[in-house]
Amino acid sequence: MSLIPGATSVFSDDQIAEGCILVFLAKDVRDGALSYTRADADRIAGVLEELHSEGWKLSVRAMFEPDGPDQAAVFATGFAFAADLAGVFEAPTISAALQGSVRLERAGWTRRFATEWLIGPRELAVVKGIGPDIDRPWGLLAFWEWNDARTAATPDERRDNDRDCDIAFQNDLNTNINMTGRHRLDWAHSWHHLSIWEAASPSVIDKVMYEHERVLDFRFTTSRHIIGRRTPLIELLKP
């Protein structure tokens, strides 16, 4: 698939390793009719260990530090979103990502969570924020689709918009926000793309959004933003 749009002054398509994300937006269903037990939690934990041994990155953090801690982590989102958690793993291939969701469900995932799964190959490389190495416990999942205004725009108007958006993205980096590049979802979902940020706090994310508004970042897109705090997945698997 071709890049839409292509690499920019902020985001590079150089030396990108093969990879495909498995995104899951999950709602706790333990209070429903389905029983969920310690045995289910243990089976899910076992699948997670298998995925890690097969080369999966089991958190957004691992996309920036692949040799760092291997603990599976998600973002707790229930305080501001209909789903209780949002997670992003990165599998070696599209087929592996699809099979990973099946393996988790067979292990007992569906007795714990009602889940929307999304799968998308990597397009653009991760970009690290500029500044000291700080803790960034908050995540932003930014989904978007290109709208009719982009379809009607001329090639020059689209390029101008891409350049304006890079101004905002550079400001994000200057604020020491990490960005996962871009993954493409539209081959199997209504959302076209996803990028995930790591930030020090919600207020940092809120502040930089003003620059995105100023440069009309959302002129050519319909977007959905989900914010959450990084949480070990094992804590949310407990019966």
Structure notes:
Helix content is 32%, strand content 27%. The chain has 239 residues and is of the alpha+beta class. The chain has one domain: Alpha-Beta Plaits. Strand 7 (182-184) and strand 8 form a beta hairpin. It is globular, with a radius of gyration of 18 Å. The protein starts with 19 loop residues before the first strand and ends with a helix.
Named CATH architecture: 2-Layer Sandwich
The overall pLDDT, averaged over residues, is 91
> CATH class, please?
Alpha Beta
Task: Report helical residue fraction.
Answer: 25-40%
Q: State which percent range the strand residues make up.
A: 25-35%
Described by the principal axes of the CA atoms, the overall outline is globular
Which runs of at least 5 residues are low in confidence (pLDDT < 50)? none
* CATH third-tier fold name: Alpha-Beta Plaits
- Our Rg estimate from Cα atoms comes to 18 Å
Major sheet attributes: 8 strands, antiparallel, barrel
* Beta-strand segment tally: 9
- Total count of domains: 1
Helical stretch tally: 7
Order of helices and strands: EHHEEHEEHHEEEHEH
Strand order of the largest sheet: 1-3-2-9-5-8-7-4
Structural class: alpha+beta
The span between the termini is: 42 Å
